[in-house]
Amino acid sequence: MDLLLIQQILVAALKTGTPLLLIALGELICEKSGVLNLGQEGMMLMGAMAGFAGAYYSGHLFLGISLAIMAGMAMALLFAALSLSLNTNQVATGLALTIFGTGLSSFLGSGLVGSTLSGFQPIAIPLLSDIPILGALLFNQDILIYASFVIVVLAWYVMNKTRVGLTLRAVGENPHSANALGINVIKVRYLATLFGGAMAGLAGAYMSLAYTPMWMENMTAGRGWIALALVVFASWRIGFLALGAYLFGFASILHLVMQGFGFDISPNLLAMTPYVATIAVMVIISSNALKQKLATPMSLGKPFDPKLH
């Protein structure tokens, strides 16, 4: 295997893993606050549709990104209003949000199916992009991938080095103690949920404006569900989340790599690779129940009513 082929595989894995990284990061922050939002797939689809429609009709890609983020946040706000203010079951509400987002994106985007546009193009950073392998991998990408690097670093810093991160973790671990200390638990959870929606919308925009600059129904192909598994796989740690996203990205293109090497296997079976990998990861994680329990935010998925405390 020559260096050029290795470089191409790594770049493809990076591109494929980026939407997983963005949406999973949003879900990780959301879950750190104690909120379990299973509506990631629906929010991502709405972001992809809104982003593509905005860019297609306006001719401005950055307007498309803005609309995608707002669409994701609007869906997240709906979820927050139901689960945090009205105390509906978070699991059921999240599943309903995915069904709603899938149907609504298909309905609103029906007139754009198959339409294409000129999406975000790679921007080479002078000198750095000439470094063998790493240059093409890290310094010759589109602006959304560069943004994902920055967002991940900032999120890690905020979560581990600032009072904001400490507050978020406190709310996720013990909302009753946090409330007793004067922290507005519901407000913190609303903000975390909205951040998760923004990241889901941005991930959707990446899909329809950079990865495959077009719109088609269900184009996220289950990435929202994979992102949920990825958060558990990473044990709610951002560094492991980034590594896992790119590993899952590699699993997603593995069928193309194997076909390129001439493996005589059904392409439909090979296309199942990322989903099989997801199941395998969940089985492995479930085998160590104690470790998973220690890593899971203690109040994850549990409602909190400040009027009762």
Automatic annotation (TrEMBL):
Its main location: membrane. It is found in: Cell inner membrane. It comes from the Bacteria. The keyword Membrane applies. Pfam families: BPD_transp_2 (PF02653). InterPro entries: ABC_transp_permease. The chain crosses the membrane at residues 6-30, 42-59, 65-84, 91-113, 143-159, 190-212, 224-249, 269-290. Keywords: Cell membrane, Membrane, Transmembrane, Transmembrane helix. It is a multi-pass membrane protein. PANTHER family: ABC TRANSPORTER PERMEASE PROTEIN (PTHR43370:SF2), SUGAR ABC TRANSPORTER INTEGRAL MEMBRANE PROTEIN-RELATED (PTHR43370). This is ABC transporter permease. It comes from Vibrio hippocampi. The lineage of its organism: Bacteria, Pseudomonadati, Pseudomonadota, Gammaproteobacteria, Vibrionales.
